[in-house]
Structure prediction request, 410 residues.
Amino acid sequence: MKYKWELRETVGLFGFLLVLVTLYFGLIYMGPAKFFTAPNAQKLFYFHVPSGLVTYLAFLMVVGGSALYLYNQSHYADRVAKCSAELGIVFGFMSLASGTFWMKAEWGGDIVSRFLTDMRLATTLAMWILYIAYFVYRRQPETSIVKNNAAVLGMSGLIMVPLSYLSSRFLRSHHPVIVGTAEQDSLDPSLRIGLYMGILAFILLYSFLLNIRMQIEVMDKVIFSRKMGNL
Amino acid sequence: MRIGLILVILLFLAPFSSAGQYCHEDNCFTNRGYINLNEEILYVYYNSLFTIGENWFIVFYVTGTDNDYDVDISFEDGNSKSLTLSEGSSNYTDSVSFSGSTFTSEKFDFNLYLTVTQSQGGEIVANSTFMIDINKPSDDDMFYLWGGMTVFWVAIGAYVLYLSSRFRELNEKVEGIEK
Prediction:
C-alpha cells in the first residue's frame, strides 16, 4: 500500500502551520501578559485551552460513536469511538499537564490539594481517568460483548463532559470561565485571536490524527482477518 | 495548655514579623549622600539598585531646620515625587517611595535629580544628582512556561511518532500479505 498525499495531509500540515503561527502570536507578538501574576507562564493559555476543548470534542465523539454503535451496531461508529478516546487521552494529558504548570506559576500552593478541592480540576481529571479505563478495557480481543460494554462505558462522557465543562460556572472552582458572558468573568478580548487560532489548529490536528488512527485500525483488522483466514 | 502557650508566643512575635518589610533605618540602605543647605546638612539614604517589582525608598534626614524646604525627586525619564521638610526642632526624617512598577526595563547609570527649594519664595537652595541602576530580576515563571511547553510538545510528538511507526509496521505487513 503506497502512501499518498491526500486531503487529510493538507489538513494536518495546515493545522501544524497554524500551531506555529499561534506559538509566534502567543510567545512573541503579544508580549508579557498584563493582569497576571505569572505573565510568562500565561503563554500556556494559547495551548492549554485549545487542547482542553479538543479533549471535550474527542470524548463527545466517543459518546456519539458509542451511542450509534449501541443503536445500530455500526462498526465504523465503534472505530470512531475507540480511536477518538485515544486522542482524547493524549490531548487531555496535554491540557492537564500544561494547566498544572500554569496553575503552579499563577496560583501557587499545593498541586495535589488543588486537584482535590477545585471542582474543574477534579472533574476533568476524573473524566480523563475514566477514559483511560475505557482505553485499557479496549485492549483485548474485540468480541461483541467487549464492544457493547465499551460503548456503555464510553457513554459516561454524556455526564462527565458537561460536568467538567460547567463545573467552573456552577461548582466551587478558581478556574476562569473561558466561553461566557462578561458577567461570568470570561475571556479578555485581547486574548481571543490567539485562542481562536489555537482552537482551529488543534481541531485540524485532531481531524488529521483521528483519520490516521482510524486507518491504522482498519489495517489492523485487515491483517487480523487475513491471518484468521490462513488458519 | 501547650496550644495556649504557642498562641501567646505567636501573639508576642507577631509585631516583629514584618519589621523588615518597610525598613527606613540608615543601615537598610547601600548608599548615603548629602546636600548642603543654608545652615544644615540634608542626608539622603537610598539603594543604588532599583529592583523592578519591589518598592524603592529614599529617606531624608536633617538635624533640625529653621526653614521649610521642598524637595523634588525626579528620575531622568520624568517620574517624580516631592515632599516638604518642615521646620522642626531636631532629627527630622521623611521618606518617599517609588512603586516597583515605576520602571519596566533595565537601565544603568540612571540619573536621579534632587532639587531643594525654600518653601517661602521658591528659591533653589541646592541641586544634586545621584546615579542608580535599574535591575530587572529573572522571571521565575519562565521555568513553568518552558516546563509546560516541553511536556506539551513531547506528548504530541511521542504520539505522532507512535502512530507513524505503527502505520509503517502495518503497512509492511499488509504489503507482505498482498505479495
